[in-house]
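Explain this one:

_____
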Amino acid sequence: MPVHLTADEIERVLGASFDGSPHELRSRAMLVVLARIGLRARELTQLMLDDFVWGRGYMRIRPGKSHRERCLPLPRDVGEALSVYFLHERPARPCRAVFLSTREPYGPILDSSVVSRTIRRAMNHAGVVGISAAAHALRHTAATQMVCRGASFKEVADVLGHASLATTAIYAKLDLGMLAHVALPWPGARS
């Protein structure tokens, strides 16, 4: 089974980002993007301001591990968290990276360990234990929520940027009801 957070745990983690730190809006925006869209840590650090088409409500994810660019709808809470970060905390710099380092000269985040530390801090603050504090836990959570809301494996694969449906097959274990409909009868079993 993919390791994921429950709906309650993810909401506690998102709420824990408001911890009074001077960079809580950046942390909140990072966590919301990861939890709702399921980006990889590297994809998050490579987001550019030009990747958002605000008027049409979508964002572009640059080619990464799957070597495919994808355009995804921008959920309202993701757009709101990013807007608040842009308006109230992101340093005014010519750098086009969405998420900037917290120290001068405020350049792009070059190391995905910054993302892992942000997740770990929020999970600890929220009391979520026993789950690896990494972007992949939030990625699995986003995928799990999509499957549980009825998304097809093809839709999940498209959002996550999987090149093959076989990679998305891990989420088939989540929907036991759907598996029961497609399962073949056991050979020799009585009807």
